[in-house]
Amino acid sequence: MPVNEELEQYTLSDYARWEGDWELIQGRPQAMTPSPGVRHQRVSLRLASHLEEQLEECPHCFVLFETDWEIAEDTVVRPDIMVLCGEVGERVTRRPELIAEVVSRATARRDERIKSQLYAEEGVPFYFLVYPEQEKVKAYHLQEGEYRKIDDYSQGTWKGSIKDCPVQVVFSRIWK
After folding, report:
1. pTM of the full predicted structure?
2. Model confidence at 4: pLDDT above 60
């Protein structure tokens, strides 16, 4: 019998009872790393605030910070930053338009590989990997089911559109 068949699988109802900070990816629990460091938090907050400011005139899009996204009965993740558009209930159960993960040594594998693949499978149009220590952002756009790199940014500006709302992210603003 393959090992995967013997590993326990968990669901959202199990997840709801767990103490501490967890993510659940395809039935497998993923312990969250200890609380992010100060630099991580400051960069996250600046980027979230900058995105929120850019979407101020957008009638249907908004930013959420460290909020669970319930993808399926066996999958719930907590991206650092999400941009959502349209009606959302008390819990996020639909696909965001943009996700940004602030990468640390402890989260690199999960953010760069596991979550990247998961977000692509779920159809998230834009994915940003933010590296505070290098003051760099790798921006990706989903095309034909795969993320294709837009560019690496440090001091530059990403100009895009989220659900017909123009967005300009000036990355130099998040490194102050």
Report:
1. 0.90
2. no
